[in-house]
Amino acid sequence: MNWPVVSLGEVAAIDRVSADPTTLDPSTPYVGLEDIERGGRLIGRRSIGEAQVTSNKFRFDAPHVLFGKLRPNLAKIARPNYSGVCSTDILPIRVGNRLDAGYLTHYMRQPEVVAWSASQSAGANLPRLSPNALLGLVLPLPPLDEQRRLAVILDKAESVVRSWSRAKSAADGLAGAIFDQMFGDPVRNMLGYSVRELKDWVDPRSPITYGILKPGPDEPDGVPYIRVVDIRDNEILTGSIRRTSAKIADSYRRSTVASGDLVISIRGHVGRLGVVPPSLDGANITQDSARLRIAGAAGSYVAAALETPAMVHWMAQRTKGVAVRGINIGDLRQAPVPVPPEPEIERFAAARAEVQRFRRKALKQMFEATCLARSLQQRAFSGQL
C-alpha cells in the first residue's frame, strides 16, 4: 500500500454552526446522542418539537458525518441523509474534496480507532474528545474513487450484519407476543385460569433456593457457578463462567443445578432468566439468583410468564433495598402463575422452542456476518481489498 497518510484536519473540518431552535420550524429534524445506536445506526427520526429542544444546537447537512464526542468508546458515528440540528455533544464533520464521507465513517468505526478516540478523551465521569484532538486523527488516503469503492463494499457488509440483528431483535419479542396472544396478562389472569404459586410449579424434591454466599477466588479446576452477569436473553453465557472449590460447592449441594433448570436473578437485575445448558449440569449458583426446577413444557411456559411485563412489574413491586436491591425468596415463591390446559402449555412450549431455534440461528449468522465485516474492514484500510 502506497497511500499517503494524512491527519483528519488536512482533509475535513468540524462545523460548529450554532442554531437557536426557537427560530426554527418545529418539524426540523433533531439528532441527540440517544438517537445514534452504538456502532452508528440512526434510531428513528425526531423533530425539535418532539424532542422539546430549547437550547442552541449544531446544524448539520446530509454530507456531514456526525461524531459523538461524549463517551467516544460507544462509537456513535452516523451519516444522516437529511439536514437538521444535533446535540452539541455531536460534532458535524464536513469532508473536503479529497475525502469520501462513507470511507471516513467506516474508518472511524474501526475498533482500533474507537479505542484511540477513547484514549484521547478528557474527563473522568463524562469523557469527551475535543474537536482539536479529533482533527489530529491520522488516516490513510487512497484515491477518491478507491475510497468510494471501499465504502460501498463496507456498506453492504454492514447491511448484512444489521439484517441479522433485526431478525434477532424480532425473535426476541416473538415468544412474548405469542404468550400474550394465547394467555394474556398472567397477573390479571383475564381468562380465569386457576392459579398456582411459583413454588408449586417446581419439583418438590428440589424447592426454590438461592445459592453460594461466598464462592471465593476462581478455581480453574473447581465447580462452575452461575452469576447474574452470566444470565442473558434466556441463556447462560458459558464463556464467562467462574469456578468455586469443591468444598464450597459441596456445602451448597441444595442449589446444585441440572441441565434444563431455570435460573432467575433475585438481586441487582431482578428477573433475569436463563436455562442451564448441558455443559453446566452439576454447576451451582450464587446468592444473587435462585434455581427453578420445572419439568418439560411447563418450564418453558413458566419462564415466559415470568418474563412478561406484568410479572416483571409484580416482582419490581416486591424488590427492596438501597445499595443492592433484591426480591425476598419467600416473595418469589409466591409469584402467581395461571394454569392453562396442558395441551395449551405444550402448544406454547413448541412454538417458543421454534422461536428460540430461529433466534440462535440469527445470533450465529449475525456473529459470522460481524466477523466478515471486521475482516473486510481490516483488509480495506490496509490496501488488501
UniProtKB/TrEMBL annotation:
Looking up CDD domains in the UniProt record yields: RMtype1_S_EcoJA65PI-TRD1-CR1_like
What are the alphabetically sorted keywords of the record?
DNA-binding, Endonuclease, Hydrolase, Nuclease, Restriction system
Q: Pfam families per the record?
A: Methylase_S (PF01420)
Q: Which residues form the Type I restriction modification DNA specificity domain?
A: 2-157
Name the InterPro entries for this protein.
Restrct_endonuc_typeI_TRD, Restrct_endonuc_typeI_TRD_sf, Type-I_RS_S_subunit
UniProt xrefs under SUPFAM superfamilies: DNA methylase specificity domain
Q: Does the keyword Nuclease apply?
A: yes
Tell me a Gene Ontology molecular-function term this record carries. Answer: endonuclease activity
As recorded in UniProt, its EC number(s) are: 3.1.21.-
Q: Does the keyword Hydrolase apply?
A: yes
Q: Which family does it belong to?
A: Belongs to the type-I restriction system S methylase family.
Q: What protein name applies here? A: Restriction endonuclease subunit S
Lineage of producing organism:
Bacteria, Bacillati, Actinomycetota, Actinomycetes, Geodermatophilales
